[in-house]
Design brief:
Number of strands: 5
Strand content: 5-15%
Largest sheet: 3 strands, parallel
Bound molecules: adenosine-5'-diphosphate, tryptophan
Number of helices: 13
Distance between the termini: 39 Å
Strand order of the largest sheet: 1-2-3
Length: 327
């Protein structure tokens, strides 16, 4: 008897800097939870990172480190498909093909592009076309579910629009994907209370060394309510981050401490620092071990790229035939 088809779950992360708590709790943790019960595809999207990183050695190093991070956190490359985006070049060809069924207006409406422009980042064509490459990443592997943080929801919707347009033009080809967003961790705050993001320099990186980690945690911005007055947990980003590392009972306990006079933010920061350090300590040791053997990481990634290519290959054959590139 044939096995029922497993749901294909796919998501990528940019190697544009060290991975942080927002990445881990917003996306990586869910992906890791999926690996035993779905057909999981995880990749490091270095083509996407080129839209913001223009430092070759740094990008190469961050790519290898992101791979070590995933493996150290428990991603098993035997049961999932794990690769670096640029090792499977079919996706670039698909991006070009999809560009021709993508209305300009669809891209002009994308928040992440508009936000970057508003922040004064130079707008290159890569940044503008970024959602088309992301669509190729998703439909090229016929993925069903895309676990992401809230900031990526619109990009998955754009992917659906592009896939529908292609299917309507050339006949049923692509699966329509759905974003999966966990409301509790959809947009974790950074040190300054804005969304934690590599591009805002407000992150707490998951594999920081102890000293800089403590310094970052101590730099979390809190309000100026005096010690002898009750404080508001609902608006406090220190509380929001603490919640990630505490049981329900511990969260309730902290809430009571906030609502009574006497709580010192500095004490909560110290506790949070210790919890982050202890939570990631075993993974950090494994990561250091992995980074001593880059040859092994390359082998794992090559093996993953072969598996990914075997999936996108036949889909590309069909696409090329449908659009008329086979003559
Ligand atoms: P960054 O914004 O730091 O550059 P990426 O764009 O590489 O991070 O995001 C990788 C994944 O992590 C995406 O699914 C994204 O939605 C998620 N993510 C990033 N920051 C956060 C956050 N602060 N809260 C929740 N999820 C996040
Ligand atoms: N754009 C996503 C981000 O910045 C990363 C990404 C690229 C992605 N391709 C993807 C996520 C495909 C999910 C599926 O976070």
């Amino acid at each position: 008897m044939s096995q029922p088809k497993l749901t294909r779950v796919l998501s990528g992360i940019q190697p544009s800097g060290a991975l942080h708590l927002g990445n881990y709790f917003g996306m990586m943790k869910y992906m890791l939870g999926y690996q035993k019960r779905s057909d999981l595809f995880v990749f490091i999207v270095n083509y996407h990172a080129l839209t913001t990183v223009q430092d070759g050695p740094r990008l190469a190093q961050d790519t290898l480190q992101a791979a070590a991070d995933w493996l150290a956190l428990g991603l098993d490359p035997k049961i999932c498909t794990f690769w670096v985006q640029s090792d499977v070049k079919e996706v670039v060809e698909l991006t070009w093909i999809l560009s021709n069924v993508t209305p300009m207006g669809l891209l002009e409406r994308c928040h992440s592009y508009k936000d970057k422009l508003a922040r004064g980042l130079p707008a290159n064509h890569g940044l503008f076309a970024y959602p088309v490459l992301m669509a190729a990443d998703i439909v090229g592997y016929n993925a069903d579910i895309i676990p992401v943080g809230k900031d990526q929801q619109q990009h998955v919707e754009v992917t659906r629009d592009i896939a529908i347009k292609f299917n309507n033009t050339f006949g049923e080809t692509f699966v329509l994907p759905a974003a999966e967003i966990n409301e509790d961790t959809a947009a974790l705050p950074g040190l300054d209370g804005q969304k934690m993001s590599k591009s805002y320099d407000n992150t707490i990186d998951i594999f920081m060394d102890e000293k800089p980690l403590r310094k970052r945690v101590m730099a979390i911005v809190t309000d100026s309510t005096p010690v002898n007055q009750p404080k508001n947990p609902a608006t406090c980003n220190l509380f929001a981050l603490y919640k990630l590392f505490a049981t329900k009972e511990e969260v309730e306990d902290l809430r009571r401490r906030y609502l009574a006079p006497g709580l010192r933010y500095g004490d909560v920061k110290q506790e949070l620092f210790e919890r982050i350090r202890d939570f990631f300590a075993p993974y950090k040791a494994e990561r250091e071990r992995l980074l001593k053997d880059p040859g092994h990481i390359h082998q794992v990634l090559d093996y993953g790229a072969d598996k990914a290519r075997a999936v996108i290959g036949p889909i590309m054959d069909e696409v090329r035939r449908k659009v008329g590139l086979v003559y």
